[in-house]
Design brief:
There is one protein chain. By secondary structure, this protein is mostly helical. It has 11 helices and 2 strands; from the N terminus they run αααααααααααββ. Helices cover 56% and strands 2% of the residues. The termini are far apart.
């Protein structure tokens, strides 16, 4: 079988086969694979043909949005609800923010940590309070030393630890650097 070759060396038959596959409703990569054409070549053909392959944005009904907000009230997790309903996560976050719902604020309150703090204020030792709330030793230590604040503080205001040792240094009243700078 002899194929007519276009200016770029690709056969007209391959190009026709590709566009037939594309017309069946497939994606460019799927049509390229079915026609035996390189995907980049196929995208070039599509671009030169002036075909727009972008899908129209999805529209949501009022019932779908109502269901989203109902589930969000139960679960308080936008990503999980969006995944469950098959909705775009970014769209769901926009809806929630527009409605004044910011789920990260709800997750900042950790009941076990709050109970641990209450028990410590009552005078229990770190180990006793940790045992009562079911926390491991490291979590209790972090909660006691308020290291959790480092994780919840906005990134822009965090200060890195420079490893500066306070106290008498190599010279009179100087600080000695410990570790790398």
């Amino acid at each position: 079988m002899v194929f007519a070759v276009d200016a770029q060396g690709k056969s007209a038959e391959l190009k026709n086969r590709f566009f037939e596959e594309l017309d069946r409703g497939g994606s460019v990569p799927a049509a390229a694979e079915a026609a035996g054409v390189n995907v980049n070549t196929a995208y070039g053909w599509v671009r030169r043909a002036g075909i727009e392959m972008r899908a129209a944005p999805r529209t949501y009904t009022g019932e779908e949005k109502a269901e989203f907000f109902r589930l969000l009230a139960e679960r308080n997790n936008v990503s999980a609800v969006a995944r469950e309903l098959g909705f775009n996560r970014v769209t769901c976050y926009k809806w929630a923010h527009k409605a004044g719902i910011f789920t990260h604020e709800a997750r900042r309150v950790v009941p076990r940590r709050e109970e641990f703090r209450r028990l410590r204020a009552e005078g229990l030792t770190r180990a006793e309070a940790a045992a009562r709330v079911g926390a491991d030793k490291r979590s209790a230590q972090n909660w006691d030393k308020l290291l959790w604040a480092w994780r919840t503080r906005p990134r822009a205001t965090r200060r890195p630890c420079l490893g500066i040792a306070r106290g008498p240094g190599p010279g009179a009243g100087e600080s000695a650097a410990v570790g790398r700078r």
